[in-house]
Design brief:
Layout: H1 3-6, E1 31-35, H2 45-52, E2 57-60, E3 68-69, E4 72-73, H3 78-81, E5 92-97, H4 113-129, E6 135-138, H5 157-178, E7 183-190, H6 194-202, E8 211-215, H7 221-234, E9 243-248, H8 256-268, E10 272-277, H9 299-310, E11 316-318, E12 325-330, E13 334-339, E14 342-346, E15 350-353, E16 365-368, E17 374-378, E18 389-391, E19 396-399, E20 415-421, E21 424-427, E22 429-431, E23 444-446, E24 454-455, E25 459-461, E26 470-477, E27 482-492, E28 497-503, E29 506-513, E30 517-520, E31 524-526, E32 531-538, E33 546-553
Parallel strand pairs: 1-2, 1-10, 2-5, 5-6, 6-7, 7-8, 8-9, 9-10
Antiparallel strand pairs: 3-4, 11-12, 12-13, 13-17, 14-16, 14-18, 15-17, 19-33, 20-21, 20-26, 22-23, 23-24, 24-25, 25-33, 26-32, 27-30, 27-31, 27-33, 28-29, 28-32
Helix pairs in contact: 4-5, 5-6, 7-8, 8-9
């Protein structure tokens, strides 16, 4: 993972959770692990600190160049023998194989049958040397140019996918021959790129893996379940396949605890069986680590400890009562909740904690927030919404972020998302993600008019082609007579955007927006069938885009 890839988060589609369509395996809190770097930097002090978390699943490598020379394998240095130290402290290794050969294919990522066979042999030799390795991950973000390079990899997606499946097949075969029953993780994808996944599964990747490895850095927690559900629908081979999130993390240390807890909840609801935080200790890349440089738990490390103690391995169910709230119930006595602000009433015996596990001064009441999830724990052994936990009146009527739905996904989205050029309108259409250069690596909405205009639940990108500007429209059609308070949140990029709001075609507001703004309109009285349009247009020579969220609230009583 690198920081410049985290910047792609602005291009990730965003939505509320949706039920899984095909996955029918039991849903439980995933096994929790962390990415370590013992194969690169010898840090024996981290072992004691990791034990105290406690961390019992390390994701790490043994570099090929450190153990093979001239066809002979020798494991004789600390960076190649550290796996021996894990079983005595009750820990296991998720072994990642993803480095180029010292003596094959010119030192680039294996692409030939000979190179793949050598890669497989290196894997089998490592498994033979370390009999306690039970999980193997083949490849690391192979849909990117960061960890796979050379001929066959700097190529169109189809060629890259063929190279990867060849490598996966050889490696999985050798690993299973050496260690029957080993769990093989394949797919090796950054984000959730449906185009890449379609290509590898069309070439038989499902035959060589027990779970699909994803690194959803560009996917917000609230969107994760929806995107995985879409993946299971659009890529049939993944319909009932477990998912292993073998890397995810956050650069903002202040929000990392909430991000980890939210992500873990939504992963659990999505059939994720392994959840690996990146990183354990600081790596110099800005991502929030579980431990400080001197081995003390950080705030997100405290969240890791909370999850391990209270959620890992427990049955989980979705308890979200509406599209504006997210929640998981782990077992009978633990809830995680966040969403649109409102009051939360708690019975006696229900304790409220923050994302780090610290008690909150509830006094029988708490407050729901989109930013800070609540952890609720019952001493009575039963905890259910509507009984021991009761939510106050919800104020939100419609929300373009929380209610976003991909076309055909079956969820009710009150906002039609359209493009308009020279007065002609057409719906935005779903795009798979990574189907060509310069587009998001997650599913998004696009148009055939040009190659630039696109949108997601979180952002809109209008454009200015020679044939005429292309606007993005968020259209709300009122299902019944109601009075609403419109709120429009804009976070412009570059040159900014134009904003227009129209009721049944009559302008209510028209302005340029160059900086972050929240615009609140006076109450609107809508009749059934009335059309409220929020229109985002280009501004400047090349146009630009913006983070966009349209919320309609009830007026205060």
């Amino acid at each position: 993972m690198r920081l410049h890839r985290l910047a792609a988060a602005a291009l990730a589609a965003l939505a509320c959770a949706a039920p899984l369509a095909a996955y029918d395996r039991p849903l439980i809190g995933p096994r929790l692990g962390a990415s370590t770097d013992l194969g690169q930097t010898w840090r024996p002090d981290l072992l004691d600190a990791a034990r105290a978390l406690p961390l019992t699943l390390f994701r790490d490598e043994i570099f090929w160049r450190n153990v093979e020379s001239g066809g002979r394998f020798v494991f004789d240095n600390r960076r190649a023998t550290y796996p021996d130290l894990l079983p005595p402290q009750g820990a296991g290794l998720l072994f990642l194989v993803n480095n180029p050969p010292p003596d094959h294919d010119g030192g680039t990522t294996p692409r030939t049958a000979e190179g793949a066979a050598a890669f497989a042999r290196y894997t089998a030799e490592t498994l033979a040397r370390f009999p306690d390795i039970s999980i193997l991950e083949v490849g690391n973000e192979m849909n990117t140019g960061d960890f796979a390079w050379g001929p066959g990899w700097d190529a169109p997606l189809e060629t890259r996918a063929a190279s990867y499946v060849r490598l996966l097949a050889a490696t999985a075969g050798a690993a299973r021959a050496e260690r029957p029953g080993i769990e093989v993780l394949g797919g090796a994808a950054h984000s959730i790129p449906l185009a890449w996944l379609k290509e590898i599964f069309a070439r038989g990747a499902a035959d060589h893996m027990d779970a699909l490895a994803l690194h959803p850095y560009t996917v917000r927690p609230e969107q994760l379940a929806r995107q995985i559900a879409l993946m299971r629908r659009e890529v049939p081979q993944t319909a009932n396949l477990p998912v292993a999130v073998t890397e995810f993390g956050q650069t903002d240390a202040a929000t990392a605890p909430a991000y980890l807890l939210k992500s873990y909840c939504q992963q659990a609801l999505s059939g994720v069986t392994l959840s690996v935080w990146y990183p354990l200790n600081p790596r110099g890349d800005g991502l929030a680590a579980l431990l400080t440089e001197d081995g003390r738990p950080t705030p997100v490390g405290e969240t890791f400890r909370l999850i391990r103690a209270g959620f890992e391995g427990r049955p989980v169910e979705d308890v979200a009562p509406d599209p504006f709230t997210w929640g998981c119930r782990f077992g009978e006595d633990r809830l995680v909740l966040w969403g649109a602000p409102r009051s939360v009433a708690l019975d006696d015996g229900v304790q409220a904690l923050d994302a780090r596990g610290r008690p909150l001064p509830s006094g029988g009441a708490a407050r729901l927030s989109e930013e800070d999830p609540l952890v609720l724990v019952s001493s009575a052994g039963s905890l259910r919404l509507g009984r021991e936990v009761r939510l106050g009146l919800k104020e939100v009527i419609a929300d373009s972020w929380a209610q976003f739905a991909y076309p055909g996904a079956g969820a009710a989205d009150p906002f039609a998302r359209l493009v308009r050029q020279n007065g002609a309108e057409r719906p935005l259409e779903m795009r798979p993600g990574q189907e060509r250069d310069g587009v998001p690596w997650t599913p998004y909405l696009g148009t055939g008019i040009d190659g630039l205009a696109r949108a997601s639940a979180e952002w809109a990108l209008p454009s200015s082609p020679p044939a005429g500007e292309i606007d993005i429209i968020y259209r709300y059609r009122s299902p019944r007579a109601a009075t609403v308070l419109p709120e429009i949140r804009l976070e412009p990029w570059s040159d900014g955007v134009t904003l227009s709001v129209l009721l049944n075609g009559t302008p209510l507001l028209s302005t340029g927006v160059e900086r972050d703004r929240t615009l609140r309109l006076a109450p609107l009285h809508l009749a059934a069938g009335d059309r409220l349009d929020t229109v985002i247009g280009p501004r400047g020579d090349g146009g630009s885009g913006a983070g966009v969220r349209v919320i309609l609230r009830r007026p205060p009583e």
